[in-house]
C-alpha cells in the first residue's frame, strides 16, 4: 500500500511538471501590444493574426509573416508603407523593423509579451 501511494504521488508530480503547457499562439493571436520605451511623440505596436503580424512602426504601418514553434518565433522581412516623417522617428522605425526581423523568442507575461532578438535586444510590449 505504501509503495502504491508513493507511486501515485510520483506520477502526479511528473504529470504536473511535464503536462501540456498553454500554447503561446493561443495567447497572442487577436491581441495588440504596444512597445515600451519609444520616443514620446510616437507609438509602435504589434498585432498578431494566425500567421501574420502587423502594426504601426512610428511613422508607417508594417506587415509580415511569422512562424511560431513553442516560444521560438521567426518573423519574415517586414513590408511597410513608405511615408516620410521626422528623422528621429524614421531612425527608431528602422531599428524596430530590423529588431522585429531578428526576433528569436517570445515570452507571454502578465502585462503583455517580451520578444528577444538574436542580437540580445528585449522588446517589451504591453497589451493594449
List its traits.
single chain; 128 residues; alpha+beta; Lipocalin; nine-stranded antiparallel sheet
Give average pLDDT, whole number: 89
Give the helices and strands as they follow along the chain: HHEEEEEEHEEE
User: Which parts are unreliable, with pLDDT below 50 for 5 consecutive residues or more?
Assistant: 13-21
CATH architecture: Beta Barrel
Radius of gyration: 19 Å
What does the overall shape look like?
A: globular
- Structure classification: alpha+beta
Terminus-to-terminus distance: 54 Å
Assign the CATH class. Answer: Mainly Beta
> How many extended strands?
9
Number of domains: 1
User: Which fold name is given in CATH as the topology?
Assistant: Lipocalin
| DSSP helix fraction | 25-40%
Strands, helices and their partners?
Elements: H1 2-18, H2 24-28, E1 32-35, E2 45-48, E3 52-56, E4 61-69, E5 72-75, E6 79-80, H3 87-101, E7 103-108, E8 112-117, E9 122-127
Antiparallel strand pairs: 1-2, 1-9, 2-3, 3-4, 4-5, 4-6, 7-8, 8-9
Question: What report would you give on this structure?
Answer:
- By secondary structure, the protein is of the alpha+beta class.
- The protein has one domain: Beta Barrel (Lipocalin), CATH 2.40.128.270.
- Helices cover 29% and strands 36% of the residues.
- It contains 3 helices and 9 strands.
- The chain has helices at residues 2-18, 24-28, 87-101, and strands at residues 32-35, 45-48, 52-56, 61-69, 72-75, 79-80, 103-108, 112-117, 122-127.
- Strands 1, 2, 3, 4, 5, 6, 7, 8 and 9 form a 9-stranded antiparallel beta sheet that branches.
- A hairpin with a 4-residue loop joins β3 and β4.
- The longest helix has 17 residues, at 2-18.
- The radius of gyration is 19 Å and the shape is globular.
- The relative contact order is 0.17.
- The model is unreliable at 13-21 (pLDDT under 50).
Amino acid at each position: 500500500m505504501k509503495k502504491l501511494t508513493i507511486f501515485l504521488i510520483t506520477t502526479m508530480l511528473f504529470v504536473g511538471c511535464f503536462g501540456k503547457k498553454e500554447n503561446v499562439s493561443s495567447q497572442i493571436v487577436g491581441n495588440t501590444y504596444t512597445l515600451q520605451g519609444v520616443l514620446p511623440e510616437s507609438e509602435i505596436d504589434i498585432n498578431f493574426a494566425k500567421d501574420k503580424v502587423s502594426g504601426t512602426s512610428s511613422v508607417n504601418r508594417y506587415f509580415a509573416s511569422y512562424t511560431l514553434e513553442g516560444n521560438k518565433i521567426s518573423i519574415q522581412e517586414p513590408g511597410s508603407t513608405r511615408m516620410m516623417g521626422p528623422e528621429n522617428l524614421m531612425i527608431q522605425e528602422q531599428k524596430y523593423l530590423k529588431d522585429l526581423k531578428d526576433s528569436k523568442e517570445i515570452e507571454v507575461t502578465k502585462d503583455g509579451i517580451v520578444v528577444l532578438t538574436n542580437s540580445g535586444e528585449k522588446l517589451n510590449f504591453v497589451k493594449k
